[in-house]
Amino acid sequence: MFRTLVTRFLLKDILDLKVAVLFVFCAAAIPVGSVISGHEYHARRAEYQTRMAAGDSIPSPRPLGVVAQGVDAAQYGSPLTSYVMGSQTPDLLFVVKVILSLVAILMGAVSFAEEKQGSILKVSFAGPLPRHEYILAKSVSGLVSITYPVVVVWLAAALVFVAMGAPFSAGAWIRVALAVVFTVAYLAVFYAIGVLASVSTRTGGTAAYVAFAAWAVLVYIVPAGIAATTARHIPAPSVTQTRQETARLREQLAERKGGNVGYGSDAFKQQVRELEVNRLNRMQQQLHVGRMLLVGTPPGALVFGLTDIADTGAEFWLRLLRPYALGEEAGGSVQVTAVDACRPALAPLAVLLAWVVLLFMVTFLIFLRQDIA
Amino acid sequence: MIRAIAAREILAHLKSARFAIALLLCVAVFGLNALALRANYRAACQDHARASAAFQESLADRAPIGNLEPFVETPPPSLRVLFHVPREDMEGKLTVPPLLSLFPGLDYAVAAGVFLSLVALMFGYDAVTGERASGTLRLLFAGGVSRAQVLGGKLLGLVVVCVVPFLLSVGVGLLLAWHNGVSEFSVSDWVALALFVTVSVLYLTLFLSLSLLVSVLMPSSASSMLVLLLVWAGAVLVVPNVAPYLSAWNHSVESTWEVMHGMEVKAGELQADMNQRVQTRVKEHGPENLMAWLVSDESGIMQMLEDFLDRALSGLQAHALHARRRINAGYGLSRVSPFASFMYVAQELGHAGGNEMVCTTNQVITHAGLTAGAMLQVLRDDVSAGRNPAETRDMRDVVPRLRVTHLSLPRRMRNAGLDAGLLLVWTVALLMVSYLAWARREEI
After folding, report:
1. Best mutation site among B99, B239, B335 for testing chain A: the one with the most A CBs within 10 Å?
2. Do residues B173 and B31 lie in contact, with contact meaning Cβ atoms separated by under 8 Å?
3. Which of A141, A179, A365, B419 is the most buried (most CB within 10 A)?
């Protein structure tokens, strides 16, 4: 019975307008985002080469920044583009986090409500159809329906990157595979939230409305709120403050030595370095606490996971950018192995999977106890 | 009749779960966000006050030689408590903490642009399809009510229902931000804020008109919702984020690092040339009267410095001009989406638009030229008076103060006028198309 149900739902979903919409979104958004991200990567690469030639041994831009730009953008690029509406780079992280999650949650929201309104459920359960098999089959077919367009278009996007000349090694393909798993897990969370809304409400309209609100809160309000609260409680000195402190130190030194002083003295350099170390330490503390809090939310888990995989996240910042800012080592083309990059991403992936399991369990319980008649 | 339909719509929605959710969402977005924005603004003001004091202190005892970075003495405009500049970090050197790079916050312009359009679609997607499914539409038409009256009444009612949570939440946000920034609002700030609210209501009406059009055309609420979702994602998420990049391809601008690095290289060449000349002079005539020779026309060094300054300033001005063209091109392509027009208006009104940034940059560049000219004059005076230019002194009266003039409200309104007009045209066009589409459709 379970297999028959899955086949039936799957066929219905594949031929359905909703899945067609998801496919159109994926087919349009992911390649467009890929081309733009590829272009941005080339711009960063060109700037990197110019800077290296000028003696500024900055860490090289990460090829998988085309998937998730992360903090890589803080180091390169022409920031003037960002003046236009504060626009975000439409990298794949943005496409998945914001656009595809909205489609997934809406697909979940209308999955049961349509059948409730059309009294199909009442007719279905008039026979000896077990409820748990019904909802399990419905959930499995829904998950498969959102997975296949995403996987197909991800592969197409990866081919676009290769065609645009992004240096993809074997390790990079392992990372891309893990990024696909992340995408599917993230979309499954939003699909599950949609299904939960659909099961818990009476009409499709109410379910869609509740799902929309949940999406807005989860994607926009909660992550920004947590990040702002963390930054407020663990403030990092701004660059202006650090510069002022440096100027104050310089004046103190000038007073002590009576005017014309060489600022190249080791003591002075050490004091200036301590100021920068303090600023970076506070930023690091902020990042650790923020990560601990945010990784529990689906968008937080996705952002940290994908940026870890792409070497453009917190780990990238700690390993490469921080030492570079302190002048401890030359940046250049530092290689991070795929295993090292993927290891910190496993915890966020586990969080996403836990969300999926939890949400489906709650949905099953509500559905099993619900009075359909 | 329009009033009766609007009243019915309002009463039906005010008691619904939809209204409660919209109210909670708006309060969460505008109210709670005001707390984060207030903290950012307070930090920026404190930072500025400290920097200002330190700058004046350093000017009180410094020599007329050496590098002097321009300092904007005008504090951030009060409206920045609600609207922040998209990206103030122009150096790209880890100046923004990584946590905030990964999870940027929302200001009132983005919050209104994203959430008001969503709220409008949520209320309007089943405005006609719902009535059609329940059969009440046929009853209305049987009673002699025209399609224009239904459309007008529905729109009026929905606008009132959506405006209530928006105004309440903006009010809550202003109260929360009162102690920092908002309490210092000038009359023009309040007028700008009122204009922002008005344009937001227009933007809301636009999306309600869109949802009415789709609701008229679609057979069911579910398909109406899907089509609206597609249009919304395209207008709010795709076009505004893609268009600036498309424009960047045609209007490439050197990055700030490249411009500054180019100047550093030229300054290095200038320094080498000057050293060469000084060495030759010392070799030929010894170190006597070296300072007098340096500022004389014979050495040509002052002329070289002035030429360098002229070239550097023209380079920076050209860079700012290219940047402005690029910003305008980005907006030009984005205007296909009403979201982009709304953001342009909101940011202009909130002292956070691209024009404001370019205007400030131009003033900083001009000021840098004035400061360098004043310093060179002091150097000349020192040499002619036989004073050592490396000697420190009070230079607060010598260095001109950089008090940036922000764009006035009429100027910002003129800048935003075209886009506000576009929003109005979009709204009227959508309503007209809705009416025409419905008039040709059978409702039996």
Report:
1. B99
2. yes
3. A179
